[in-house]
Every structure is written in C-alpha cells, then in structure tokens.
Amino acid sequence: MTNGRDTPVNSRKDEFGDLRKGTIRRRTRRVVSGVLRGFMRLLFGFRVQGAEHIPKTGAFILISNHIANADPLLIQIAMKRNVHFFTKKEAFAVPVIGRVAAWSGAFPIDRGTADRKAIRRGLAALEQGLGVGIYPEGTRSINFGLQKGFSGAGMIAVMSGAPVVPAIITGSERMPGNGKKGKLTANLERPDPGHEGVLLQFGAPFVIPRERDGKRVSPEQATDIMMMALARMLPPGYRGVYADRVAAETGPLPTAV
Predict the structure, then answer these.
(1) Of the candidates 195, 198, 200, 194, which has an alpha carbon nearest to the alpha carbon of residue 43?
(2) Which pLDDT belongs to residue 122?
(3) Fewer CB under 10 Å: which end of the chain, C or N?
(4) Residue 132 backbone phi and psi in degrees, to 5
C-alpha cells in the first residue's frame, strides 16, 4: 500500500508505533472541546466557520497563520479530530502545557534546524491516516502579518501527497497571555479583521500538484502555494509579505479536493 507519492505507508511504523496511543479519545475530546469552546465564546467571542472542510477520516495537513499563543488551542477545540501539531520543543518543558500538547498528539520539533526525526514523525502520522498541523512560518508573527514560510512544510506536503486544509485565525492577537512577543507587539497598530471577537475559518482542502510548468514541484514551491492559500483567505492587514502578490495576482487557485 502506498500514499499519493508512491511511498510505502508502513515504512515508519517500527520507529514510532501507533501514534494514536496516549492521545485523547474522541468522546472525551467532544466533551472537553465543547466546554472550552463555550468559555472562549463567552470570554472572547470565539467563532468557527468552515469546519465542514475538515476530512472526517484519512490523512490531511492543516496549515495556519500564527499570531497568538492561544492559536493551537483554538484550532484543537474547533475540531472533532486530533491534529498532531509540530510544536516547539520548549513547550514540552512546561509541565501542564507539555502534557496537554502530548494528549492532543503534538510532538516536539527543534526549530531552526533540519529536525529529521520530527519530519519522520509527521510523515508517520500521515501514513497512519491522522491529521498533522504545521505553522509554515515556524513561529508566531511579530507584526500579525504572514512571514515567509519555511520549506519544511512544503517538503512534507510533497512527500506525503496528503490534502492540505488551510485555516486562518483573526482577532486572537487581542487575547492575553502572549508572553514576550506580546510585549513587543503591544504598541503596534492592530490589523482590522473585519469582525468582533476571534474568528477561526477553515478553507476547502487542496492538493499540491506534482508538476508545475513541466517540472517537479519543489518543497519551496509547495510552501509558497500553501502560504498563498492562507494569504488569499486573510484580510489585507494580515497578509504580510504576501500582500502585494495577492493584490496583483490573477492566477487560478490550487486544485480543490
């Protein structure tokens, strides 16, 4: 059995085993998520749109912009399935946060390096039909706009052939608990999200094409496709380094699944 890129799907089974083991069960998740969504709605006006775009079964890659510490939690409580997020290894050193992250399936990545083990772990999750979450920018934005995406996200999309689900969060930069980066951005002008409260929107899944202009799509090109999908969904003030391209482009959107 192979995946969309003709890679044997059991190639990493012996290294990582069943990655569902130790993660939150669906019924428990439903209860916990429902309670937390209620709190977030009451305290911060949290809303979710487009949740129907999340595949009910099978592998997928979730990509998102990242502007606040709360973003991973908001994504998790908005979904009925676990998303196994690439998460900075420093988070696992914090007892409660690390425990909760592992419970959701998150796994550590050493940012700033080519963390091959983390990449293998992400591919193994996809091979097992799980959802994998990636912040292509690698870290939170310091000015609320998209930063240039790293090629690791594109590499995983190319190697796995899994459908990519774009998600955007707007308004979460207003939430408390953003640490040192929150202090750095405290005096910056906030972008206009066009709504009150916090909004999480999921877009339609798409696939990274195998070829472009007769040449095999590289990880860098794949990441660029992913970042442009996010930029198209975001309000202008959040598009960051992709703003001019979105404003000027006339090309087609990625192929929907």
Answers:
(1) 198
(2) 96
(3) N
(4) -120, 130
What does 203-248 look like in DSSP terms, one character per residue?
PPPB---SEETTEEPPHHHHHHHHHHHHHHHS-GGG-GGGHHHHHH
CA distances from 200 to 15, 65, 133, 172 (A): 35, 10, 15, 9
What is residue 201's three-state secondary structure?
A: strand
Q: What is the CATH number of domain 13-248?
A: 3.40.1130
Residues counted in the chain: 257
Q: Which two tokens stand for residue 100?
A: 């909760």
How far is the C-alpha of 125 from the C-alpha of 3, rounded, in Å? 12
Domain definitions of the chain by residue range: 13-248
pLDDT tens-digit map of 119-177: 999 999 999 999 999 999 999 998 999 999 999 999 999 999 999 999 999 999 989 87
Quick: pLDDT tens for 220-250: 999 999 999 999 999 999 999 999 999 998 5
- Please, which residues bridge with residue 211 across strands? 216
Cα separation, 165 vs 256, whole angstroms:
10
Q: Please, are residues 133 and 105 in contact by the beta-carbon 8 Å criterion?
A: no
Assign 64 to helix, strand or coil. Answer: strand
Residue 198 is which amino acid? V
Q: Which DSSP letter does residue 19 get?
A: T
Please report which residue ranges of the chain form alpha helices under DSSP H: 13-16, 26-44, 71-78, 95-103, 116-127, 151-160, 179-184, 219-233, 243-248
